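Researcher: First entry.
Model:
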Amino acid sequence: MRKPLPFNDIRHLQAHQFLVDEAYLLDAQQYEAWLATMTDDIRYVMPVRVTTARGAGFDTSPGMDHFDEDKYSLSHRVARMGTEHVWAEDPPSRLRHFITNVRTFASDDPAELLVESAELLFRSRGDVNESALLSCGREDLLRRSEQGWKLARRTIFADESVLRMQNLAVFL
């Protein structure tokens, strides 16, 4: 079992700050700025969760993802957000990303950090739809660049196997 970095380690503090700043960008729907926090080889994945018997050895459906994206597909989603063709987000959702339980781990590469966090997303749309919550765990790889830390990989594990949200036209 890996030992997490102490909370007062500068790398942990920087990783935590990165996640808080990222949550702000997503809440403010500043998607172009959010996209700039990623490496060119980003992998952004949310596997489909399944409920299995204890000891089955897996809790995601092999080869099935809600999304599996790279910089190209993310940039197209972000660009689409600025058009009239984003019907799933018109009117736009009101979002609040709560990030907690941040644990940071050193990597074999000193220019990379492994970061675990928990996220609770609150989402409301319009005046009549009920609000929605999505709880998930995230495993991130942050890579140091000349501009500071950047997100190189994110795997999102929803805490439920049946998502009760209307759609996943949001970023986690």
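Researcher: Second entry.
Model:
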Amino acid sequence: MTRDEEKLLRRAIELAVEARSGGNPPFGSLLAGPDGAVLIEERNSSLTDADITAHPELKLARWAARELDPATAAGTTMFTSCQPCGMCAGAIARSGLGRVVYALSGDQLNSLKPPGNAFTDAPSEGPALYEEARVPVEGYYT
């Protein structure tokens, strides 16, 4: 990691401090363009917005998908205070962002939480009803 990248990652951590100061979970992210210039910054606002999806990484991925052409998006780097959760990672992949640099890993984050506060996956079942479920999907991706 270069010094410039460390500076951007430290800014993401500052955004996390700002989120916490504003009454939200302590997470912050920014998106840098191919030249390293900051394109947009976001903070977690899930509590003040009463929106469980208001993670900064998801906000940036949605912005990039709307505002950037695919080539520009592929040249961006997201700097974020913590490793993106599954929801955000999926949005990042679909938005075409080029790279993610994070400070805390998900495991490190969980080690800082009191016991029993880590998120777990919801129980799920499937696949089921393949013949029926494939009908609306078949041919869509061609």
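Model: Note on the second entry: The chain has a mean pLDDT of 96.
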